[in-house]
Amino acid sequence: MAVSNIIFYLLSALIIGCGIMSVTSRQIFRSAIYLLFCMMGVAGLYFWMQYEFIAAVQIVVYVGGIVVLIIFSIFLTHRVGSDLAEPEYKRTLFAGLASLFAFLLFWSVIKRNEFFGEQSSGELSVRRIGEEMLNYKQGGFVLPFEVVSILLLAAMIGCIVIAMRAQTEKN
Amino acid sequence: MISLEHISQSIHETLSASLNATLVLLIEMAIAGVLVISLFAVLGLVLVFMERKVSAYMQIRLGPNRVGYKGFAQTAADTLKLLIKEGLTPDGADKFLFNLAPLLVIIVAMLIMAPIAFTKGFQLWDINIGVLYVSAVSSVGVIGILMAGWASNNKYSLLGAMRSGAQIVSYELSAGLSVLTIVILVGSLSINDIIASQQNGWWIFKGHIPVLISFVIFVIAVTAETNRAPFDLAEAESELTAGFHTEYSGMRFALFFLAEYVNIFIVCAIGATLFFGGWMPFHIGSWEAFNHVMDFIPGIVWFFAKVFALIFLIMWFRWTFPRLRIDQLLNLEWKYLLPIAMFNLLLTTVMAITGFYIK
Amino acid sequence: MFIVDYIKTVYNSVTSLLKGMRMTGYYFFNHKEIITQQYPDVKQELPERFRGEVVMLHDEKNEHRCTGCTACELACPNATIKIVTKQELQPDGKKKKALDTFVYHLELCTMCNLCIVACPTDAIKMAQTFEHSVFDRNQLTKKLNAPGSKLMEGVE
Fold it and tell me: E-strand spans in B43-124?
């Protein structure tokens, strides 16, 4: 149990540390890399909880997808080695207040509800996740699944439309 | 017969008898770490030598033949040279990220090694989503390359890294789809289940046309993902002066170089596991006598034979085909591989539902 | 038809790639004809017209054919050759210009062969040696006429 706790605290420290570094770093690329380690830490937490599927999906979507996308946009817009300007005093203040507010909100929610640390979640196999995704009975996830699919489809069509218009203008 | 499974089990038992569980876990992790690192070192030496010999033979040359017996010590000598070279960090580079990038690349390669089954019961981590884990973790490797390109403070490195990133991100799709065909046929993501399902024949024979197509797509996609010729435009020596590792020298360059070859080994191991049954000997349906004869060859030999055959295939590509242009590269992925892979996935699904494959 | 064209493209590219792989595969498995020259062990027969460096011919009596006319020095495009002459007393009492030192700067030579063409007495020619590397650049400045050598009889 002791080792398990130590791993949990190490991972949490990694997540929080990298999160803070990501926000405070003056070099935008380093921020992205700290964000990457933050995401990896979250994936590590899922592995620690033995939700391997969720962990792998976390890595695929956030690390392999979103962080790479962010890094690409940094590559296309920024110059190497140039630091960001110091933020205004007022902005720092309001950002700090906003994060304090969010922290208090979460803290109050966590305080108000009881969580069972030792609760075993049972086997969460990929098969069960897949079946739940297509379950249209009580408590099934087919509707949210389809809604998300349609949202993504709309986003993809939007992308294609934007790209197509640029092409026709050029011709 | 002594098998690796028995050895690993007996080590576990002797350790468990005298120590508590935490310590046993730590010691076993240390042993596994040492084994993985030594495997990496041996792989680096063997694969670089193999590449040089294969390329030489294909170009009617002799290849390295001076250092050691028939040149076998050539890569060891090269490694020694790289070890004692000065590791330069360019002025204006982001030093922290510059040093981190090769480590990240090699650590990712080590992580992918975890679920690969070398022989029956000889596997670091029997995770039940093995295939998904491999494709997830391998997508982290690209960040090491992007990091190296950015941190070098060099426009060639940056260009190479961007090309490499675009290439890896797009070819991951078709690699993933071709892996999915086998997952559909097996009905499980676990590496062990996939190997066990090939008890009576490998999928490349059992699944006939769709699996063959997906195998071809897989090989093309992983060649692109490991940044090898003909898809090596990310590190094109003649155009980008080696791309993202232009500024690297000494040991850090050696790590990139090692990671490239280890990645080749890993993708070939995955290919061998999915399409050629991993450590499973060559079995034909219900020919009991034939299967028994094949069982005499240990699984680890089968595994490494298959992996090295695939590595040879990828080296064959490298020394035959000319390099692609970036537009040709993206055309190949988005206009050919991806539609074919999707259609093939549909075909496989139909095949799996109707049971139109050799069981 | 779009689909037919598409399949045709795929088929053609795959067959052409396979053709290339057959070629390299053939070479891999038929490893007989090798173009590698294992240089220090097996020295290669150089072509007859290979130009390695300028040498002066001497016969067994240590006589050369150079009259010191400096035609080669004049012909040389980048001052590789420097000829030092001396006045030699003939048996009949007359003084005659003769070769003292034929200085040849190998480090400047481009092996253009113009000096050989210019030589009226065929005293110099191109040798086939090519292992010229030395540790000191000064060693590349050579004296081509052997010590104590004389002009061959009858060469004017």
Answer: 117-119, 122-123
Domain assignment of residue A117, yes or no: no
A16 Cβ contact list (under 8 Å, min separation 6): none
Q: Quick count: other Cβ atoms within 10 Å of Cβ C125?
A: 14
pLDDT at A98: 93
pLDDT in tens, A25-64: 888 888 888 888 898 899 888 888 878 888 888 888 888 8
Closest-CA residue to B234 (of B142, B299, B315): B142
Query: Do A1 and A75 belong together in one domain?
Result: yes
Q: Which of A61, A84, A107 is the last residue of a domain?
A: A84
Residue C61: enclosing H or E segment and its boundaries?
none
SS (H, E, C) chain A: CHHHHHHHHHHHHHHHHHHHHHHHCCCHHHHHHHHHHHHHHHHHHHHHCCCHHHHHHHHHHHHHHHHHHHHHHHHHHCCCCCCCCCCCHHHHHHHHHHHHHHHHHHHHHHHHCCCCCCCCCCCCCHHHHHHHHCCCCCCCCHHHHHHHHHHHHHHHHHHHHHHHHHHHHHC
Q: Which of A25, A53, A84 is the last residue of a domain?
A: A84
The alpha carbon of residue A101 is apart from the nearest alpha carbon of chain B, in Å, by 33
Instruction: Please state the length of chain A.
Output: 171
- The pair of structure tokens assigned to B215 is 């195998």
**In a domain? residue A160:** yes
Residues of B in contact with A41 (CB under 8 A): none
Higher pLDDT, A128 or B304: B304
Distance of residue B8 Cα from the nearest chain C Cα, in angstroms? 39
DSSP alpha helices (H): ranges in B117-247? 130-138, 141-151, 155-186, 191-196, 203-206, 208-225, 237-240
Which residue did the predictor score with more confidence, A137 or A97? A97
> CATH no. for residue A62?
1.20.120.1200
A161 close contact with B: CB closer than 8 A:
no
Distances in whole angstroms, Cα of residue A140 to Cα of each of A52, A130, B180: 22, 11, 25
CA distance B245 to B235: 8
Quote the pLDDT of residue C150.
79
Nearest to B104 by CA among A27, A60, A73, A63: A63
CB pairs under 8 A between B and C: 37
Q: State ipTM.
A: 0.78
**Which chain C residues touch B if contact means CB-CB below 8 Å?**
10, 17, 20-21, 23-25, 27-28, 31, 33-36, 38
Are A74 and A134 in the same domain?
no
pLDDT tens, residue by residue, B131-183: 888 888 888 888 888 888 888 877 788 888 888 888 888 888 888 888 888 88
State the DSSP H helix or E strand holding residue B294, giving kind and residue range, or none if neither. helix B288-295
Domain around A157: 123-171
* Chain C contact present for B343, CB below 8 A: no
**Does a structural domain hold residue A54?**
yes
Interface subset of B 107-146, CB within 8 angstroms of A: 127-129, 132-133, 135-137, 139-140, 142-143, 146
